[in-house]
Amino acid sequence: MSIITVSRQYGSLGKEIAENLASKLAYQFLDKKSLESQSGKFGIPDVSIEKYDEKSPGFFEYFKSGKDRYIRFLKTAVFENTKKGDCVICGRGAQLILKDIPGVLNIRIVSSMEKRIERVSEKLQCDKKQAEKIIIQNDKDRSGFHKFFFEHNWKDMDLYDLVINTDNIDVDSAIETILTINKCKCLKIDPALLKQKLEDKFIAQEVIISLLYDHSIPIDILDVECEKGVVTIRGTVTVEQNIEQCKKAALKVPGVESVETEIYFITNYMGY
Questions:
Q1: How far is CA 133 from CA 121, 151, 205, 249, 253, in A?
Q2: Which CATH superfamily is domain 3-189 in?
Q3: CATH number of 192-265
């Protein structure tokens, strides 16, 4: 039972590597299309999907009010789809969404600009100048996506366990390298423990969605943790009754056994 995330530069063969890796392992393959096809299930209207593609921060500022809602549902989709393990996730910031989950193998696929231009030009049947413009914009958009939603640098090598440069390494060789690393004992984790941790993450996200969107409870600095069904809600409210509302709403979420609150009531008034 394992989970592999693949982050890639456009034109680096990363998508091909991720798809073929999943096929060879007989793992579930998750990407933008497969995750966002579930948008209705997680409450995201289809019309909003394209707003939150891998665009730069400048583009996203216009849609800032929907930022939190989108990332909450994206995390929920990732956590639910990975609970059974044995999956390869391509893109969508999965290396950051699953950052605290042990046993996850995070891969980054890169290539030189020269090679990327050559591949993109051939694939899109365009000249090299146009291919370079497409690659530069794509890099800018993906970098902006990670910065805006996760406040992380997409290029930060500390996020990855293995970086493969495909200038001289073909798809099959890259896959064999990843398969070898994936067999390391250091990445092995008890399947039951992995499932429990992902289930806890999923429940915590469901509680957040319930409080903010299903019940529209005004709570600031919201943070929710779950451990084996025991949920802890942290935050601040300006109406004391909201604390009890949060507890009641959380208890209705499937999988929640009990709720502890560390919510502080702050009087909302002007002056000192």
A1: 11, 25, 38, 49, 47
A2: P-loop containing nucleotide triphosphate hydrolases (3.40.50.300)
A3: 3.30.1340.30
